[in-house]
Amino acid sequence: MKPMNREELLALLRSSNITIKTVDAVFGRCILPDATRWKKFIQVVLLTLGIGFATAGIVFFFAYNWNAIGNAPKLITTQLLIALPVYLSFLSRFSNTTRKALLSAACVMIGVFFAVYGQIYQTGANAYEFFMAWSLFSTVWVLVNRFLPLWAVYSGINFLWLFFFMNQTSLDVPTDLRYLAYLLLFILSFIFPRFVFKTEIKRWYTVTAAIASAGVVTTGITYQLFEEMETHSLLFLAVSVIAYILGIRYSLIHRDITFVSIITLSLVVLLHVACIKIISTDSLDSISILAFISPLSIILSLVQLNNLKKKWRDENG
Questions:
Q1: FRET partner for 52 with CA separation of 20 to 30 A, picked from 36, 224, 236, 244?
Q2: Tens digits of residue pLDDT in 257-286
Q3: Burial 141-175 (b: 16+ CB within 10 A, else e)
Q4: pTM for this entry
Q5: CA distance 185 to 158
């Protein structure tokens, strides 16, 4: 029998007359955060904020004092700011999380270095070339570090270079294929750390990937509703349907209402877009129909989601 997790223990408390102290004593698990867990949480939060604000401060320092700094100090400083976190990450006095956070800061500074280099020498590089170089020179560190927040930043950088590449090059890529590429990128960004890093995927990352994927699907289908459908448009629709089915299946398996809610919100938005496409907004009758469908779809969605949440809660209890 596998150990009970926190949600199962809370369900046990709701369905019985035992106390929290009894559960802690019997199962050896703390239902409420103790001093040690609060200390660890505060350390992680302060570490993240400290490194994040320090990195942002360095970036704004260069932006504000750009004209007052010579070319050589600019390049030397940015290179030192890459080397210093890398050096500190090898010191054993820091925890594993701290060292990974330092390497993450170094990867961010790689982007700053390329930006500084491009401004000094006026390379004339396009935006996609900047983000592509940033992604390329960060790949090894990302694979070695295996740090989920860094992987999230890396996925964002890859999306940016792909987005600018599609829009700044002479390649005549159909818009629906662009959205298909964006969707596949986010799906791979979700799958890769799970099966390659072999690490636990945190819920915040899963939710972020789900929101990004749903945003791409919603935007892509909205575009196709107002444009002429082509052969490869069906491919994007098929991948979108498969992604939503897998998302619902994941939500049913893990009893997590969040992913069903995200998909439901996307479908409600698409329903409104389809109604606007089909119904002419020039007549008063059409506007009245749309005004009736809009609140009805939202209310029904909220009721069904609330019922599903109660059902899962009762089953766990």
A1: 36
A2: 888 999 999 999 888 888 887 775 556 666
A3: bbeebebbbbbbbbbebbbbbbbbbbeeeeeeeeb
A4: 0.73
A5: 8
Q: How far apart are CA 203 and CA 210, in angstroms?
A: 10
What's the confidence (pLDDT) of residue 19?
A: 62
CA dist 67 and 61 (Å) reads 11
Q: Using alpha carbons, select from 109, 204, 107 the residue that is nearest to residue 148.
A: 204
Instruction: Report yes or no: 124 and 117 within 8 Å, Cβ to Cβ.
Output: no
- What is the C-alpha to C-alpha distance for residues 31 and 160, in angstroms, rounded to an integer? 41
**Gap between the Cα atoms of 110 and 117, Å rounded:** 11
List the domain boundaries for the chain.
Answer: 52-172, 196-317
Picking from 255, 258, 263, the residue whose alpha carbon sits closest to that of residue 311 is 255
* Three-state DSSP string of the chain: CCCCCHHHHHHHHHCCCCCHHHHHHHHCCCCCCCHHHHHHHHHHHHHHHHHHHHHHHHHHHHHHCCCCCCHHHHHHHHHHHHHHHHHHHCCCCCCHHHHHHHHHHHHHHHHHHHHHHHHHHCCCCCHHHHHHHHHHHHHHHHHHHCCHHHHHHHHHHHHHHHHHHHHHCCCCCCHHHHHHHHHHHHHHHHHHHHHHHCCCCCHHHHHHHHHHHHHHHHHHHHHHHCCCCCHHHHHHHHHHHHHHHHHHHHHHHHCCHHHHHHHHHHHHHHHHHHHHHHCCCCCHHHHHHHHHHHHHHHHHHHHHHHHHHHHHHHHHC
Closest CA to 158 of 188, 180, 125, 122: 188
**Alpha-carbon torsion (13, 19, 20, 25), positive or negative:** negative
**pLDDT, greater one: 22 or 235:** 235
SS (H, E, C) 114-139: HHHHHHHHCCCCCHHHHHHHHHHHHH
